[in-house]
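Hi Y.,

Following your request, here is the sequence exactly as I used it, all 512 residues.
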Amino acid sequence: MLRRLFVAFLTTFVLTGCNQAQPNQAIDRLKPCTGHDAPVDAYCGTVKVFENRDTRQGRQIDLNIVVLPALRADAQPDPLFFLAGGPGQAAAGMAKQVRDMFRRVQTDRDIVLVDQRGTGKSNPLTCDLSDAEDDSLRAAMVSYEEVLGRVKACIDKYDADLTQYATPIAMDDLDDVRAFLGYDKINIYGGSYGTRAGLVYMRQHGDRVRSAILDGVAPPDMRLPLFFPKDAQRAFDMLVKDCESNDGCREAYPNLGPRMKALMERLEKEPPTVKITHPRTGETANIRVDARMLANVMVFTLYIPTASALVPAIIDAADRNDFQSMFALGSLGDGGGAQQMAIGMQLSVLCAEDAPRNTADALAREAEGTLFGNYAMKLQSDACGFWPRGKVDPSFYEPVTSRVPTLVMSGEIDPVTPPAWGDQIAKTLSHSTHIVMPGTGHTAGGTGCGQRIMAAFIASGTVDGLDTSCVSRVTRPPFFVSPAGPDPGVPPASNASGSAKAADKPAGQAPK
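Below is the corresponding structure, written out as tokens. Let me know if you'd prefer a different format.
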């Protein structure tokens, strides 16, 4: 059940009509989709690329493509390319959700989803961290050492050169897809890790980009997971502050911050063994609950404000040795089906691009004084000690400079890509605006306000005159103050009112 929490990281949370009257050039090169994971009116196909783009010899990869055709017969020629998060998410597998998220955009433009090499159906580097046939609680509660061992065992199972799956290589693949489909210019949306991919594409193929949306910014120089403990701590501290500012939450859960700190310390020293009921199967078992489990659930939950509305109640219950609600929340989405995150691809990216710039001393320093620092992304950091490591050019870490019109978006309470990262990249994107969505977690594009702003931006192709007035009306979902839910008489608190900062400035300014 909690195995998902070992690897839940930078996930993009997005939400998913109709056929166009006449097929365009791109669709002429594809066929109607027949799989269950794509809309019936979508078109599917593949583009073959060399795994090693430098030698152009040896193994080749079929890149999986799904195109959601524009609804109008006189559609605009520049489509929207959707770049998924993770790293490790499969874009094409999210076609139904993406269609809902960009329904306004699809009226006038095709939407293109490409499974990045190593994900989905593009030579997937998946790694099963569980016993797929065993749905028991005990099977789900594998030790950290066993999970790490399973990651290591996956290396020998791949038919792949794991050093060839870094972002710059994948973005050259993406441009091959653009050329194959016959598009001259494209618009890009990148969410979470997709923002890194989008920035790299803008650096390598900027002449092909009409406009860009970067949502939940994870730039190339982020050095994951170096700052993740403090960013997650910031999100938790904001949650505690919002609870204290809310009469109902403060009365129901007093002293929430100190209680959470004491709870983590107790679970680290004396983890209790408690009876847990599987939230889906009804099986019961005695489970030893340690600080690692609680930390993983908390960090995962902070990504999603509707879920984090339950955090005060979960801390309160756990403080009384009742961990049932914690396990139920940790099992969100764990109902079987295809694995959503290609862990092998994720590690190939992180170990090539982030791990070489981190040191043990720096990781320890940045984790010091945080609640979750000893556990946040520890699996990824440890796995990079043995994972085959690709190389990226030193220029990969330099700020991306561009005059491409760019909409930068951040969730105010995002635990992994907080607004500071959006501020940083906007400094060298000379025609940009940065919107901070209040009360919003990881990525802002899933909000109704965010979707309206994105559609207007893509339609106009400029940040000038963009109506962002809806931002001030977005708030954090109200906290659950009892099993019945929130108190409708008490409005939610918010730490900030949100903002949109326009920039039309000389390129080349170095971020602070």
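Residues 7-126+159-224+395-470 form a domain with the Rossmann fold fold (CATH 3.40.50.1820).

Thanks again,
Q.
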